[in-house]
Amino acid sequence: MRTLCIDIGGTAIKGNVLDLAGAPLAERVRIETPRPAVPADVLATAVEVARRLGEFDRISCGFPGVVEGGVVHTAPNLDGDWAGYKLAADLELRLGKPCRAANDADVHGLAVIESKGVELVLTLGTGMGSGLYTDGRCVWNLELGHHPFNGDETYEDRVDDAVRKKIGNKKWRRRVRAVVDQLAPIFNYRRLYLGGGNSARLDPADLPENVTIVDNRAGIAGGLKL
Ligand code: BGC
Fold it and tell me: Are residues 101 and 120 in the same domain?
């Protein structure tokens, strides 16, 4: 059983084929997200990622927005009209294999959680994603990134990639810590995981003991769990 795992992001579309144990069966493929990131072009790029990876039996896709039953509701960091887009059905049609699609942060977390108690995942990339799990079950589509924080701003406005580039890594790290300190007494998670493309810029020494920095490759590995 070969699972094609696709991670659609605001910056790049990544993919690999994994066996049932999670071992990669190909070299990871990464293609920049076309801009404007309208459905037709993003899907064509996802298909190109698949084409470069060879054979697979089923498909799993993480998407940077709210996804319910394989259908997209929102895509804040992409362009064009995604509401109502039948993402899983479209990938099935284009690639000829069964597909599941879900929110990218939810998928990311599936690769790293211990499935014990309350676990929270934040992905720090183009946007800020969030995934909440209780004893391993995902509370799908938690959108913490768009919760107000600091006056007129949201969590995502405070720590997304555009702002990191503007204020620099040092200030950005302090902001991430402020987000963690705000969320800890609200969610009372057993463990928090910080992933996404920018997690490698964090320093574990700046973070509380129950916070783990995870590799962005979880976006692919989580696809197998989905
Ligand atoms: C979206 C989330 C997504 C996150 C990371 C946010 O803007 O609302 O659904 O998980 O970006 O891609």
Answer: no
